[in-house]
Design a protein that fits this description.
Low-confidence stretches: none
Structural class: mainly alpha
Radius of gyration: 19 Å
Helix content: over 70%
Number of strands: 0
Largest sheet: none
Number of helices: 5
Shape: flat
Distance between the termini: 62 Å
């Protein structure tokens, strides 16, 4: 059973109402990053089991690829907004550079997933 801290409870309630929490120390950010990583990896085995059962053909894989691409592209555009705001407000160059890399990587990942999704269909016959 997972215990929840007061801050963790506050974060869950805030997320239900669409609010995000800012952390004022690197220690707190690192703690949150660790929690996110642990939560994601705790589902890894379940995802693998489900994928093994469900993804018995390329077409069965396709919806997951399209869904992941949709979410990543949406997040890339969300990050672009943060990048524009950081630039407009003259925030630290390190932050701007990190956001630029994240945006570029997100767009690259969206492109890779689009390519993967295209490989799930039969090649079209052309020249008729």
């Amino acid at each position: 059973m997972t215990t929840i801290t007061r801050r963790g409870l506050y974060e869950r309630v805030a997320s239900l109402f669409g609010r995000r929490i800012a952390y004022d120390s690197t220690t707190a950010v690192n703690e949150r990053l660790g929690q996110q990583t642990a939560a994601a990896y705790s589902l890894q085995t379940w995802h693998q089991q489900q994928a093994t059962v469900r993804n018995t053909s390329a077409l069965a894989v396709q919806p997951g690829l399209l869904d992941a691409r949709d979410r990543i592209l949406t997040e890339a555009l969300f990050l672009e907004g943060h990048l524009a705001g950081a630039r407009a407000n003259g925030l630290r160059p390190e932050l701007i550079e990190a956001l630029e890399r994240a945006v570029d990587h997100s767009h690259e990942l969206a492109g890779l997933l689009a390519t993967a999704a295209r490989t799930t269909t039969e090649p079209e016959i052309t020249g008729r």
